[in-house]
Amino acid sequence: MAKKKRDKNRVLIFDTTARDGKQSPGCNFGPDDTIRLAHQLARMKVDVMEAGFPVSSDDDFEAVRRVAHEVPGITCAALARANKDDIDCVMKAFGDAIKRSRIHIFIATSDVHMEKKLNKSPDEVIRMAVEAIKYAQACGIDNIEFSPEDASRTGFSFLAKIVAAAAWAGARTINIPDTVGYAVGTEYPNMILRLMHEVSIIERNDIVLSLHCHNDCGLATANTLAGLAAGARQAHCTINGIGERAGNTHLAEVVMALKTRRDYYKLDTGINTKEIGPTARLVSSIIGKPIHDTLPIVGANVHAHSTGIHQDGVLKERATYEIMSPEDTGWQEESLPLSSQSGRHGFKQRLAYIGYEVNAKTFGVVYAKFKELAAMKPLVHNTDLHMLMQETEAEQHAEEEGWIRLLNVDYHKLDGTRRVFVGLTANDNTFEASGTGNGPFDATWSAVRSALTRQKFWPGEIKLESFDVSKGQGGIESVGIARVKISLGDYAAFGRGSDTDIVVACTKAHIAALNNLINAPILRERIS
Ligand SMILES: [Zn+2]
């Protein structure tokens, strides 16, 4: 079969939310979440999804295996270092889905990384990269992407040498990472231009050059767009720009800049931009962090106009102060919100639409919660449903495992001090206690701690590190989302809880964090 010629103006979007994105603290998510995200990315028509780094954890292995087998319409990529064990692990995860999957092999190429991290000479690094690519090919995969990690701090002549060697060895995509967000001005696009001019195999083998930027100086999107203008044809991005430190390139910014300024770039992506908003909200609910109000394209403020002159202009003609329409990016809630009038059938259909297959027992529980919520909050959005589902799944899991669960919570306030009463259960034991504090977080923390300490269920010096609360979507009766971070020694865990009552939300967040901490595999041994 003749190879289809690549459209020279088509930019491939490579989403790495489930790999690089989730490496940011507190953003971890499991295989079920990755599958949910994969279906949504496929709906949005992302070209490639990096689903994980299989050798790094069982969860990543499982996420890659499931995305490769269960999600049609998207190429599943998985990360490997340049060694046989990593590559074998990726191959095992791909299994018989190898033909529609991509392996992403990386090795560090900057002096500081080669010397300090790898302890290898430049020649050894090239040899390892070439051997790894050839080994992957011998395992039966031909869709191979190669990354010289920290490329932007790699001397150009060595970079050109390893790029050429990787291309000759069989890599079809070469990704040039700005791993630490170091590139400024024209450095990054110049690197792309020079590689295209000086490494002849790139043109000869129709190799796709790819971009991977970090936002340490706020330049990830700018560098990515400059790289595309210079001739690269794939961009690594994450949803809402999540990622280590200051994050990765925010997918929606690149896609909407190319679309809005097609006259300038003359480049296209395959993205269905109407799914940008729903995808942003899904990721926000998975990681339990709100979308920042001013985050470009998807933030709550990007189509809100508060000054009189702007309001007047926008009412007469949106184009006066806006360059894209909210309809085009799915900025508003995607489908009709549910209400207390919504029946079981409609509710079940909506759950399926946003990615939850539920059995009869779970459905009963979550439907009752939905009815309770709808009684307090006239419109129930998909974001609320994600929270209900995640909470229900976590509670059921805690019940099965004998972890801590909340039975009841009550409180009163006297002279500015709050007294909170909680009832908890774990391993068929029931604990009750009260605690006081000025704010909802310290009062509920003190109540939960004294309930568990009384029953010798408290594993040691757990510290409440940080907490915050934000408002869910939907007006005055909105749901409060409480988030906490706790730690035991050098290990930290996160928890989240939501409720229309903030004291209940805080209590739920503490319990979720405690369950995550106490039951983390690395701590379980130490504690028991
Ligand atoms: Zn990265």
UniProtKB/TrEMBL annotation:
CDD domains noted in UniProt: DRE_TIM_IPMS
SMART domains, per the entry: LeuA_dimer (SM00917)
Gene Ontology terms: biological process: L-leucine biosynthetic process
PANTHER family the UniProt entry points to: 2-ISOPROPYLMALATE SYNTHASE 1, CHLOROPLASTIC-RELATED (PTHR10277:SF9), HOMOCITRATE SYNTHASE-RELATED (PTHR10277)
Protein name: 2-isopropylmalate synthase
Pathway(s) this gene product operates in, as recorded in its UniProt entry: Amino-acid biosynthesis; L-leucine biosynthesis; L-leucine from 3-methyl-2-oxobutanoate: step 1/4
GO MF annotation list: 2-isopropylmalate synthase activity
InterPro entries, sorted: 2-IPM_HCS-like (IPR050073), 2-isopropylmalate_synth_dimer (IPR013709), AIPM/Hcit_synth_CS (IPR002034), Aldolase_TIM (IPR013785), LeuA/HCS_post-cat (IPR054691), LeuA_allosteric_dom_sf (IPR036230), PYR_CT (IPR000891)
Homology family: Belongs to the alpha-IPM synthase/homocitrate synthase family. LeuA type 1 subfamily.
Pfam families: HCS_D2 (PF22617), HMGL-like (PF00682), LeuA_dimer (PF08502)
EC number(s) per entry: 2.3.3.13
Keyword vocabulary terms for this entry: Amino-acid biosynthesis, Branched-chain amino acid biosynthesis, Leucine biosynthesis, Manganese, Transferase
Top-level class of the enzyme under EC nomenclature: transferase
Domain of life: Bacteria
Coiled coil regions in record: none
Keyword Transferase: yes
UniProt domain Pyruvate carboxyltransferase: residue ranges: 11-277
